[in-house]
C-alpha cells in the first residue's frame, strides 16, 4: 500500500463489499448485504484461543457505498479506556451509526449483537470551545495552536453529522458510505466493539473471505480492506492528551507511517506542517504500526500484502524513522500480473472482474494452531461458483508457487533487485505476532495522489525501464508509465457502480504442510449456520484449471464462506468538515 494521499477528481465510483468473518469453534461474523450465498467445504476443526479482537480519498459525485452487516462471529478483547481521557466538542452529539451483527459458534448457532461504526478523527470538525476552527484549509490557527500540547488542550473533536455531512447512513445491518457529500470527500470508518472500543481481530490460523464487484473501478483507483495494529481504545489510555479515543476515531496508523494525521499520541502534529493540497498536509511526525492489506484492487489489478513493523503497537515516528526505520512500507506483495501471469485477473480473464467474485485469504500457522507462528498466506478465488486457485508465479528466479511465504518473499526481492526490508522488519513471524495482539478493521477507497497507483497497475518506479525485473509488463489499455493524467480522473468517463460483497470469513486454516486437494464447493441457501450447512448442501460446483504452471502442492480447502455481506468504499486521507 502506498501513502494515502489527497484525492484528485470527480468521478462516480462505487465499491460494494459483502463481508463475513468466522472465528472457528469460537465464533463467526456475518455482514449481510443482499441475499447471501454460503460456500462450504470441509476443513479440520482446531481449537482456537478464542481471544479475538478486532487514506486517501477520491472526489466522487453521487457515489455511495453500502455495507450490510448481517452477523459477525467474534470474541473481543475487553480493554477498559482510561477515565482521564485532544478534547471532545459539544456542538454535535456523537452517535455511532448502529449496525446489527451476529456472533456465531459451530455448536451454539448465532446471537444478534448491536454494533456500530465510527468516523476517523481526521475527517471531523476541529474547533475551539467558542467554535473557531483550529484548522482551516491546510493551515493551523497560530493562536489556538502555538505548540502541539497547547493545541490539543485548546481544540475539540466534535461529533459527526454522519448522514448530512458525510453521507454515512445505516439501516439495520446496512451501512451506506457516500463518497462525495457537499464539501466533504470520502470517509474512513472503523468497526466498533462498543461505544469506546474498536473491534479487534486475530487472524492467526483463520480464513478471511469476501465477495467483491470491482467492475466500476478503473486503473488508478484502489478499493481496499485492511487491518492495522491500532490501540483498541484509540490511544486514550496511553496518551493523556487524547480525551476522545476510539469513540471519535483516533489512533490511526499503518505501515506507511502517515504524516498527514492532525493528531498523533494525543498531540497536534503541527511541527513542520506543510500543506500538500487544499485540505491536507504533512507534519513532522508519522504514525506507524503493522498492517495487513487483505485487498488492494480495482478492475484490472489486485494485490494482497503483509507489511511488518519492528514496533509492537501504534508508534509515533520522526524523520527517517517514518520512511525506513520502523516498518516495511513496500511489503511483500502478491500481484498476479507483476508475477508473470498477465491473463489471470481482469475483465474477461480467469478471474473475470466484470462480475462479482469471492476472495478467500487463509492465514496458516506452522503448527496449525491459533497461537502458532504465521508461516503462509494463501489466496483462492471463486468466480461464478467455480473455485480458482491463485495464479502461480512465472518469474525466473522465483520458485513456482502461489502463496506468500518467507521463502517466496526472499526469492521475489532477489529476483526484482529489491532490498528485503520485509525480512528485516520481521517477515511473516512479525506480522503474525501483530495478529495475536489484535488488529483493527479499516474500510476505505482511494486514489493515489503521489504515484497515480502505478505501483499497483502500471510500470513503477517511473525512472526505471519497464523491462526491469519486477516492473509490470506494459498493458495496452493503460497509459505509459508516468503519463497518467493529473488529476487522475480527468480523462475517464464515469464508471458504473461496482458492487462487491465482502464477507471476511475467519475460519481455521488447514494444517501444514499440505492440506488435501480442494474439494468441490457446495452451494447453500442464505443465512445458514455451520451446523446445518452440510445437510442442506446442493450439487457440487466445478473447479476450474489455473492455466499456468502446475503447482508443486495441492491447494487447501475452503471453509464455510459465511453469507455476510458488506458493501463499502475505501476512504482515504482525512477531509475536514469545513461546513461545521
TrEMBL record:
Main enzyme class: hydrolase
Transmembrane segments: 13-31, 65-83
Annotated EC: 3.2.1.-
InterPro entries on file: ConA-like_dom_sf (IPR013320), Glyco_hydro_7 (IPR001722), Glyco_hydro_7_sf (IPR037019)
Protein family membership: Belongs to the glycosyl hydrolase 7 (cellulase C) family.
Recorded coiled-coil stretches: none
Species annotation: Jaapia argillacea MUCL 33604
Catalytic reaction annotation: Hydrolysis of (1->4)-beta-D-glucosidic linkages in cellulose and cellotetraose, releasing cellobiose from the non-reducing ends of the chains
Organism taxonomic ancestry: Eukaryota, Fungi, Dikarya, Basidiomycota, Agaricomycotina
Xref: Pfam families: Glyco_hydro_7
Alphabetized UniProt keyword annotations: Carbohydrate metabolism, Cellulose degradation, Glycosidase, Hydrolase, Membrane, Polysaccharide degradation, Signal, Transmembrane, Transmembrane helix
Region (Disordered): 465-500
GO molecular function terms noted in the UniProt entry: cellulose 1,4-beta-cellobiosidase activity
One GO process term, biological-process aspect: cellulose catabolic process
Cross-referenced SUPFAM superfamilies: Concanavalin A-like lectins/glucanases
Protein name: Glucanase
